[in-house]
## 1
Amino acid sequence: MSSNENNEINLKILILGDSSVGKTSLLLKYADGYFPTIYVATIGVEYKIKQINLKGVNINLQIWDTAGQERFRGITKNFMKGADGIMYVYDITQKQTFDNLKSWIRQSEDSTEGFKKIIIGNKSDLETEREVSKDSLKKFCDDKGFTGVEVSAKLGTKVNEAFEYLANMIVGRKTKEELIKTYTESGRERIEDRKSVV
Ligand code: GTP
């Protein structure tokens, strides 16, 4: 998290999960309001900025969409550093992507610390193809003290709520004054300095 001279706070959020679970779709739905109809595998990482206001503070959510494919794992790991929040995504119609959450969580916990987490079961519109029950998500979250939610990037169901829930968790109980004070002095580079992506 960091803040610039306009008292805007920058939060870094990462979207992690297996290939094809819908990470890019979630980002585009949330940041740009549309669902892409053609699948293009993410190469490396890409980010978008979504501005929101919490507690009267303007917040730039810098949301990084990572590649799920194994061959990009090294690049993805580099981008985990300094994350304020991580959204772990699986596909409710592909059990393996749910089983792999543990590995994504372990890798990110090895790479960075002090971040907030949310578990996302995407493609809730595909109820007839479901392989992961809502109970499995609840149990996984209860065991680890996480929050989990099923969403549909396609229909837009609970997408905004999921991102904003994570942002709220990061901001926590700090007042507007505390937020600005805490993050004005941060050593994190400003967003303008971070335009280049792999
Ligand atoms: P990588 O870039 O390979 O890591 O994939 P990704 O996780 O970014 O997946 P992406 O968003 O590209 O979506 C993969 C496929 O799932 C595409 O064909 C999407 O149209 C589809 N998809 C994504 N979200 C949903 C959803 O909510 N419902 C349905 N039915 N399909 C979805």
## 2
Amino acid sequence: MKLEAVELIRLNVPLKSAFRTSFSSVSMHEVFWAHVITDQGEGWAECGANDRPDYSSEYHTAAMDVIKQFILPDLFAMGDDLTAEKVAPAVHWMKGHRMAKAAIETSLLDAQLRHQGISFAKYFGAVKDRVPAGVSVGIMDSLGELMRYVDGYLNEGYLRIKLKIEPGWDYEPVKLVRETYGDDLLLQVDANTAYTRDDFDLLKRLDEFNLLLIEQPIFEEDLLGHAKLAQYIETPVCLDETIISADIARDAIELGAAEIINIKPSRVGGYLESMKIHDVAVANNIPVWCGGMLETGIGRAANLALAAMPGFTLPGDTSASSRYFETDLTEPFVLVDGHVSVPTAPGIGVDPIPEIVERFTVSREWIKR
Ligand code: OSB
Ligand code: MG
């Protein structure tokens, strides 16, 4: 395949309600898409980077810059020798910038598989045609507000609730949700690194609520700290921010720092690295689940395909489009019996709807070979 041109499309898509985590409150999903044109057809991907370097060191302006200055020149230079599988080796010299790399690799994989008539799900070796959906519930201003949201999501049929936590918003909300809905509710929490090694006793108090897992309790570089915490508490420790590669996944598992792994393709540099992490986890009996970055349909479609791989044994943050947006930019993903369908059409399996995309577009830029 030969890469002819890339369009970077910046979009501002309003969220239905503000999504607050321990690191930010977002009411506008500010993202960009990579739209590649190759000699075999076009492809699409959503970059997972936020507008600020708050979840990871990446942010969308920087990701776009890295794509333009470094990633594309290397790929243009490969002529017609390019495949999606060759992207990661070609840009391996470049430190970090995994979300930028993932956006380009994924859009090329989309182009390649659309041309071959193969869906992402088939390429990944998916074993399900629909995946169980959880929902990530942000930090709220009050317990009453939290309960209205949790109640609404459970009524819609979500199969698992994830509560965002931070110091001061942990024990009480978890206790209230557990006591209101009983022991059968699949319940987990996500701290996005908000705690420290000094908080282990506080986190141990959550043991009484029989949580599925606690996600990324402390600093992402503190592998040993997570291993110590995993020893100290009953709740399984799940890593998100820390796991940026299959190598780190292997080490975290061996160290006892990751009893469960959240796989987010953007964070790890793409779907091919995600498949490797899946395989490392499965080989070590570590459950994985698919995380999210509030993706529009373009990113969500690919995540759903990944979540249909056999090792994804826990419900993901692969919620329906209506969890996030009044209007998605592709055919919306809907919740049916707590599940979301895995796309079956070639590539990511969905297309942007031009009139809707237009409404949310902030800017477009073409980079040609
Ligand atoms: O830590 O999983 C996270 C959203 C943005 C950044 C980080 C995270 C999240 C979520 C929501 O928890 C996941 C989703 O529903 O897409
Ligand atoms: Mg997380």
